Description:
The chain has about 110 residues and is an alpha+beta fold. It is about 25% helix and about 20% strand. The chain has one domain (about 5-105): 2-Layer Sandwich (HIT family, subunit A), CATH 3.30.428.
Amino acid sequence: MSCLFCRIVAEEIPADLVYSDEQVIAFRDINPQAPTHILLIPREHIPTVNDITDEQSPLVGHMVVVAKKIAKKLGFDDQGYRLVFNCNEHGGQEVYHLHLHLLGGRPMQWPPG
Ligand code: AMP
Ligand code: ZN
């Protein structure tokens, strides 16, 4: 299995897990870009946003709902946070297993780089 995040799902590579259920897991980014930087990933391998099927819409919705619950649990939901999917080269995607970045704990800039 060559996909890094599939290996984290399979527990072949350790990660600092903050949430897990039958559909998704969430863990702390190894190179955090904010005081809290968490990645939410489906257990199922989906390479990019471009590969999400209509049938997988509930799964992606679940990722967003889990993200907002984590933000609430960590106490920065009211102050706010950013959710990001990077897609392909121009989006800055480096790991080709779908992931939702949850960034919180500081004000974010706009526009992004
Ligand atoms: P992206 O550029 O959207 O593909 O984001 C990939 C993210 O995965 C980056 O923020 C990396 O810091 C993060 N990352 C890479 N390897 C690991 C790892 N082993 N554990 C946690 N996060 C990782
Ligand atoms: Zn994968």
